[in-house]
Amino acid sequence: MAQTREAIRATIESYVRAVAKGTVDDILALYAPGATVEDPVGTPVRTTDAEIREFYGMVEPLTQTGEVLTVKIAGNSAAFLFRLVTHLGEQDIVMEVVDVMTFDEDARITGMKAYWSEEDMQTVPSS
Amino acid sequence: MAQTREAIRATIESYVRAVAKGTVDDILALYAPGATVEDPVGTPVRTTDAEIREFYGMVEPLTQTGEVLTVKIAGNSAAFLFRLVTHLGEQDIVMEVVDVMTFDEDARITGMKAYWSEEDMQTVPSS
């Protein structure tokens, strides 16, 4: 049975919340075994659990706020725009990214590709 | 030499303008030979010039307005959110889509995947 749109949308919301506020384990729980991560697109694809844990381990200690702005679902795939704000004392780093994900039939993430570059990061006074 | 961000951005703007207001030839001129089109994602990939012409031939006669809302570039790829409004007498069909494209070194499109489904189309009174 195919995953529902609602389940895909829920995974995306949980993902952005986990990246902003959760632990590496919270994030990894949303991934299917064997998943791949390419972030940003054009860099080497992370294919092992250890590589993916290492990647998300970099964001775990940060104080962040996340928000899903737009979700477009097509079949078992989705593209979504989200905003991640990293709070660094008197400054915030605001980043807007489009992630493209594929999902298995339980709406777990089987692949993630992130589209962004340095021009999508802005440093602003903290709000 | 790699394509510049400015060239990729210009191709995306030209693409949305051509889809909204241009001819099939205007659109095809932005594609590299051998390009592929998957619109929406999950449907069969169009791989030949004839298939791609047939696809864009469906939108050529429509009266449309297009607008690029957000562009995220990563390496030789980009994901962008755009809005396409089709004017049908007293009604408009408003559609928001995320397209993901890859580009060759001349910033011509080598692959296009469109993320949307029926829920991303809305019929509203014409403005």
From TrEMBL, chains A, B:
Pfam families according to UniProt: SnoaL_2 (PF12680)
Protein name, as recorded: Nuclear transport factor 2 family protein
SUPFAM superfamilies in the record: NTF2-like
SnoaL-like domain segment(s): 13-111
Top-level lineage group: Bacteria
Signal peptide: none
Source species of the chain: Rhodococcus chondri
Coiled-coil regions listed in the entry: none
